[in-house]
Amino acid sequence: xxxxxxxxxxxxxxxxxxxxxxxxxxxxxxxxxxxxxxxxxxxxxxxxxxxxxxxxxxxxxxxxxxxxxxxxxxxxxxxxxxxxxxxxxxxxxxxxxxxxxxxxxxxxxxxxxxxxxxxxxxxxxxxxxxxxxxxxxxxxxxxxxxxxxxxxxxxxxxxxxxxxxxxxxxxxxxxxxxxxxxxxxxxxxxxxxxxxxxxxxxxxxxxx
Length: 208
What we know:
By secondary structure, the protein is of the alpha/beta class. The chain has nine helices and five strands; from the N terminus they run βααβαβααββαααα. It folds into two domains: 2-112, Rossmann fold (3-Layer(aba) Sandwich), CATH 3.40.50.1390; 134-207, no CATH class. The chain has helices at residues 12-17, 21-35, 56-66, 78-81, 85-98, 114-148, 160-171, 176-185, 198-207, and strands spanning 2-9, 38-46, 72-75, 101-104, 109-110. A hairpin with a 4-residue loop joins strand 4 and strand 5 (109-110).
């Protein structure tokens, strides 16, 4: 089995010093050797763990796995891959759909085994449940904001409920454009009236 390893640290100082990276790398090499796997490469990012979107080497690795350049991904600790259950579940769902495996050493997630696959499926089910709960809350919030039709001041020009709603939808992984479309579809008022735009949504979220 051919696998990619993935390691991450949060700050440039840690990346330059190797602090944290060496331990992760050693754990990955040891596990791959124990299993008799071919470790194709170990990819590294120096980035915050808050989001997976800005990690260039993780994105490249996931694309390579999708393209069949290896059979699996191995990480030393779950929080090096993702601190969000939703993000992790998205990785697991991609792996299942595209036919590659995921091994998270510290958590015991290993989709090459029956037990590890069970743990992964439980986590995916929990993430799906969380998505449904967030979706229900989002729909309720959309209805409440639409019913009120409130606008407050010129800064930021929309209600506090609308700002909270934008942040909630963004936390589910929706793009700025999809959030703008949802607000427009539900008739949530903008500060000037009319249609929502992705740039407006992003600006409000950043300033809030």
